[in-house]
Amino acid sequence: MTAQPHQFHRHPALPWAELRVSRQSPHCYRLHTHMEYSLGIVDAGSAVFQHADGAQPMAAGSVVLIEPGVWHACNPAQVAAWSYRMLYVQADWLHAQLGVAGLRFVQRARHDAATTAAVQRLCQNLLEGDAAAWTQALTALLRQPAIAHLLAAPPALPASDAAVHHALQRLHRQPDATPSVQDLARAEGMSASRFIRHFKAATGVTPGAYRLNLRLNGARRLLAEGAALADAAHAMGFADQAHLQRAFKAHHALTPGRYAQGARP
User: Fold this and answer.
1) Burial 22-36 (b: 16+ CB within 10 A, else e)
2) HEC states along the chain?
3) For the chain, how big is the Rg over CA atoms in Å?
4) Could you tell me how far CA 219 lies from the centroid of its own chain?
5) CATH number of the domain at 6-151, out of 3.40.50.10050, 2.60.120.10, 3.10.25.10, 2.160.10.10?
6) 64 pairs with which residues across the strands?
7) Which residues contact 22 (CB under 8 A, 6 or more apart)?
8) Interatomic CA distance for residues 192 and 198, integer angstroms
9) Distance (Å, rounded) from C-alpha 56 to C-alpha 29?
10) Domain HTH araC/xylS-type spans what residues (predicted)?
11) For residues 6 and 263, what is the distance between their CA atoms, to the nearest angstrom?
């Protein structure tokens, strides 16, 4: 039986965290975001990390640190296979542990031995289910001023983004709803073309891409919690299971069914 290149691991002792292990994967990913904080490490091969600050080369031992809501993509360099691990940590749980309203990473790509070793330990501690050691190691890493800025309040949204903020609130409030771009634009007193330009300038993606990413993240959360595929598809506004299957595999390089099997404790 051929080994699956992508596996997800959770442990009952750490329900707020999830580990993705990808081995010799040639898959490429579209720009996307996560609801969680993401800490990743390249185990073999090389990749290109694309995010708001540009494209950065990554090699074995390189670490990526990504806040929730940051659009990004990590893809193998020259379409060659690579191996990596990615930790996902629930934002609300992490904020409570640190006593903050948020955090911002100083650098989203790091290549120093100390950070690499710290993320290696976090991956291993999750597999072992050592919640105390894992939590202590994570908070110690993130309290370092060279790693992250701890925020007493969420980052303020620029006033010029108010129209986009209203649209985002609507999309997040009802991810299963299907307001058209025209509906969103009309609510802000804009033409559809102007609204799309404004939205993309503020977020980096179109309203349609943003909504699909939001729905996929919601479906992923529901599947990890044990929801049936049909229920997750319906709750997140997909036309049917097949629609969710296609979109999920295109974004995550595995089917939602296989993700659910690996994600459950």
Assistant:
1) bbebebeeeebbbbb
2) CCCCCEEEEEECCEEEEEEEEEEEECCCCCCECCCCEEEEEEEECEEEEEECCEEEEEECCCEEEECCCCCEEEEEHHHCCEEEEEEEECHHHHHHHHCCCEEEECCCEECCHHHHHHHHHHHHHHHHCCHHHHHHHHHHHHCCCCCEEEECCCCCCCHHHHHHHHHHHHHHHCCCCCCCHHHHHHHCCCCHHHHHHHHHHHHCCCHHHHHHHHHHHHHHHHHHCCCCHHHHHHHCCCCCHHHHHHHHHHHHCCCHHHHHHHHCC
3) 19
4) 13
5) 2.60.120.10
6) 40, 109
7) 5, 6, 7, 82, 83, 84, 85, 86, 253
8) 10
9) 15
10) 165-262
11) 11
Model confidence, pTM: 0.86
Q: Give me 120's structure tokens.
A: 């290696």
Higher pLDDT, 9 or 4: 9
CA distance linking residue 212 with residue 32, whole number of Å: 10
User: 128 is written with which tokens?
Assistant: 């072992």
Tokens, residue 260? 């659910």
1.10.10.60, 3.20.20.150, 3.60.15.10, 3.40.50.150: CATH of 159-263: 1.10.10.60
**Structure-token pair, residue 205:** 């993606």
Measuring CA to CA, which residue among 98, 99, 101, 96 is closest to residue 156? 101
Does the structure show a pLDDT above 90 at 1? no
The encoded tokens of residue 179 equal: 């307001």
Query: What's the rounded Cα separation, in Å, for the pair 33 and 251?
Result: 10
How many Å separate Cα 53 from the centre of its chain? 17
Condensed to tens digits (0 to 9), the pLDDT of residues 54-97 reads 899 999 999 999 999 899 998 888 767 899 999 999 999 999 99
Write out the two tokens for 114: 């100390």
